[in-house]
Amino acid sequence: MKKTIGVKVSLALIPVLLVSFMIMQYVIINEFRGASLQQTQNNLNMLGQSVFQTLRSAMSFGDATIVESAIDEAAKIKGIESIVVHKSQEVINAFGLNAVVSDDPVIETQFKNPHNLNLELAGTTGRILRLVVPLIAEGECLACHPTSAQGDVLGVMDMRYSFATIDEDLAQRSIKFILIFSAFLLFITTLLLFALKRIVGNPVEALLGRAKDLASGDGDLTARVTIKSDDEIGEVGHNVNVFIEKIQQTVISSQQIAHNVGSTSGTLNTSASTLLESAKNQSSQVKESYALTQKVEKELDRSEKLAIKTAEDNMASFEVLDDMTNSLNEVVGHISSSSSSEQEMA
Q1: In the prediction, which pLDDT does 1 show?
Q2: Which pTM does this prediction carry?
């Protein structure tokens, strides 16, 4: 099956659009994910600070039961997987608690160099945000912790928040983005194909129609390609029209030359007929001249023979005359002799 220019352009354009939209979607989703995660972390930090302030308020009562109750209530907040308060060795010793200091390197570092810390971890249920906040003794804390000094780390709050709900929401939003981008890609592709049809397809079809019309042998050389554009296709259409006009002028000139050749051929035919008739007449005259020549030749032969005979007759006449002359001379001699004799006798 022959592929048209529109199909070829579409086959080349659709993958480019698809890749472009995929890259755009990837960038937008990642940016959205990053912004969502940043906003979530900010919210979780606020939540952690809120839980921390709740614990500090509960600790201000100096009742461990109230503190444990506050921790349990905070752990019930949606998304929070666990809240653990790691106590310092000094607090364990001061209150005689049955506990040991955590050997977690992150917690140990907080007792030495306290600072708020956010860690993103991979858990069994998905990604987890770990908030580590040191509980630093302030002035009002010294009433319950007389053995501690202001600025000492009394404990470390270790709260873990699951991103499962957020990831699920992001996945659903990603699907929505994919559907929106797919619909937009389909719309853009349809719009581009329609534009290509009007901008490229229709002019090319017009050029193709004129080319087929010219190639059929019965093409109308008075028709022109109508392309109302100033781009390369419009220039091609203009050049095709110029070419058709040149062919039309050539055909008109050829027709005029053919007409002139026809007229000349008629004149030549007439001249040829005249020459043929003249040739026939000359041939007849030549034949007549030849016959006359033959007749003259025969007459000349006959005259020659007559002349020869006449000459021979003349010679014979001359001889006869000569003989007659001689005879006459002899007669005259005899007459003279006789006369002389008669005179003497007289």
Answers
A1: 45
A2: 0.45
pLDDT in tens, 131-184: 888 888 877 777 677 777 888 888 888 888 877 777 777 778 778 878 888 888
**Contact yes or no for 292/299 (Cβ under 8 A):** no
What fold characterizes domain 5-141+150-186?
A: Beta-Lactamase (3.30.450)
Measured CA to CA, the distance from residue 36 to residue 165 in angstroms comes to: 12
**Helix, strand and coil percent figures for the chain, each rounded to 5:** 75, 10, 15
Residue 183: HSE in the Cβ half-sphere, 13 Å Cα cutoff: 5
Residue carrying structure tokens 């987890």: 128
Angstrom distance (rounded) from CA 137 to CA 151: 5
C-alpha distance from residue 149 to each of 59, 61, 111, 156, 332 (Å):
16, 19, 14, 16, 220
Listed in sequence order, the residues at least 6 apart from 127 whose beta carbon sits closer than 8 Å to its beta carbon are: 120, 121, 162, 163, 164, 167
What are the sequence ranges of the domains in the chain? 5-141+150-186
Instruction: Give the DSSP H or E segment for 88.
Output: none
Q: What is the DSSP string of 52-75?
A: HHHHHHHHHTT-HHHHHHHHHHHH
- State CA 160 to chain mean position distance: 58
d(C-alpha 131, C-alpha 47), whole Å: 10
